[in-house]
């Protein structure tokens, strides 16, 4: 029985065995009450979402909500998890039914990506959230960096600042024009100035979001998008 994967040693190896058991294998061994990894996959999806969201939130501090959502979706998609499964050679350990084996199931992206989530959940249940992070966070960090660079994930404030700084006589500032709504759902309106001249306005549910929106509007006026 496999007890270790990617350097993590299970206290309860049965959790890992369950995580590696595809539904096709479980169906062929019903008489032995074998369970598939589908329930673990469900939990793993949530654990993966939390780990990736926390990392993006703490690392890309100037990104607005929409951009953070796009980045998270990119690093936890089926293709990304398939790449991770290939890195750790997960396919060789999967328990598959005869039909899946003959059909190359241990190399199929959907099967492997689901197995990654199941293994992540098994590690989480066996060793907690830090163990789960140890399993996959390094990959998520690398993937996020590649996507952010390749897709030019934009921090609009930084981009605008870099343009303005090329002319040392110009200064950039953001000014709160208004805020409205209840405390739990406020809307902020921010105006961006170059020197003392108002250039563009943006709104959002936080001051940071509104500043990003204002910077984006200013960049559009400059023909930078």
Characteristic terms for this protein:
alpha+beta; Ribonuclease iii, N-terminal Endonuclease Domain, Chain A; 2 domains; 5 strands; 13% strand
Explain how this protein is built.
With 225 residues, the chain is of the alpha+beta class. The protein has 2 domains: 4-150, Ribonuclease iii, N-terminal Endonuclease Domain, Chain A (Orthogonal Bundle), CATH 1.10.1520.10; 156-221, Double Stranded RNA Binding Domain, CATH 3.30.160. The protein is 56% helix and 13% strand. The chain has helices at 13-19, 23-28, 38-59, 65-75, 78-87, 98-102, 109-127, 129-150, 156-165, 207-221, and strands at residues 4-5, 8-9, 172-180, 187-194, 197-204. The strands form 2 sheets. The protein has a 3-stranded antiparallel sheet. Strands 1-2 form a two-stranded antiparallel sheet.
């Amino acid at each position: 029985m496999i007890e270790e994967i990617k350097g993590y040693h299970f206290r309860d190896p049965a959790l890992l065995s369950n995580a590696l058991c595809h539904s096709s294998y479980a169906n062929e061994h019903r008489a032995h009450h074998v369970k598939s990894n589908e329930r673990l996959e469900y939990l793993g999806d949530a654990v993966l979402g939390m780990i990736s969201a926390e990392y993006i939130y703490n690392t890309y501090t100037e990104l607005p909500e929409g951009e953070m959502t796009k980045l998270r979706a990119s690093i936890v998609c089926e293709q990304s998890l398939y790449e991770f499964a290939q890195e750790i050679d997960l396919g060789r350990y999967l328990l598959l039914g005869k039909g899946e084996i003959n059909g190359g199931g241990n190399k199929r992206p959907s099967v492997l990506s689901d197995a990654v989530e199941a293994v992540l959940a098994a590690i989480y249940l066996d060793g907690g959230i830090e163990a789960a992070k140890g399993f996959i966070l390094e990959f998520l960090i690398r993937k996020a960096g590649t996507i952010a660079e390749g897709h030019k994930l934009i921090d609009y404030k930084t981009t605008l600042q870099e343009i303005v700084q090329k002319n040392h006589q110009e200064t950039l500032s953001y000014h709160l024009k208004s805020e409205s709504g209840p405390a739990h759902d406020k809307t902020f309106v921010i105006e961006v100035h170059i020197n003392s001249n108002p250039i563009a306005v943006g709104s959002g549910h936080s001051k940071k979001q509104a500043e990003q929106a204002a910077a984006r509007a200013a960049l559009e006026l400059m023909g930078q998008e």
